[in-house]
Amino acid sequence: MPLKLSLRPGEKFVVNGAVVQNGDRRAALVLQNKASVLREKDIMLPEEANTPARRIYFPVMLLYLREGDPDEQYAAFTQRLSEFMGAVRDQDVLGECLGVSRDVIAGEFYRALMRCRKIMAYEAERLGMAAHVDSSVPARGHAG
């Protein structure tokens, strides 16, 4: 099923590891086959992985984009998730963590990223962080 992206002027996104930027007008892009796609708002730079939940998101994002050594990214993910789960007592959040783990094991990296956003929102709330994390889950993250 195709994926339609509605793009703001100048909006960046990643398709299968390539950074693409829209021109100076709104545009719609339709991907007809399966591809790893992340919008600018879902892309995290290494220096932004500065909290426990963000350190879970980052290696999952790299796995999804097929960047770097997958064994290293998976090891980083499992270590960070284990540390986070050891510090959290909220059953709903622990359930999301287990869901992230199941999704990563199944190779459903985009779904895992969207679950991570919920964990990041929980963390931001608990830490009283001013910046809010969008924990809404878009309908689809990849064409296929």
Task: Characterize the main sheet.
Answer: 4 strands, antiparallel
In angstroms, what separates the terminal alpha carbons? Answer: 5 Å
Beta-strand percent range: 15-25%
- Broad structural category: alpha+beta
Number of strands: 6
Question: What is the number of independent domains?
Answer: 2
> Averaging pLDDT over every residue, what do you get?
87
Q: How does the overall form come out from the CA principal axes? A: globular
Portion of residues within helices: 40-55%
Runs in which pLDDT lies below 50 for 5 or more consecutive residues are 135-144
* Count of alpha and pi helical runs: 4
Description:
The chain folds into two domains: 3-42; 46-127. The protein is 46% helix and 17% strand. The protein has four helices and six strands. The protein has helices at 52-65, 70-87, 91-105, 109-127; strands spanning 3-7, 12-15, 18-21, 27-31, 35-39, 142-143. The radius of gyration is 15 Å and the shape is globular. The chain starts with a strand and ends with a strand. The relative contact order is 0.16.
Helix-strand layout with pairing:
Layout: E1 3-7, E2 12-15, E3 18-21, E4 27-31, E5 35-39, H1 52-65, H2 70-87, H3 91-105, H4 109-127, E6 142-143
Antiparallel strand pairs: 1-4, 2-3, 2-5, 5-6
Helix pairs in contact: 1-2, 1-4, 3-4
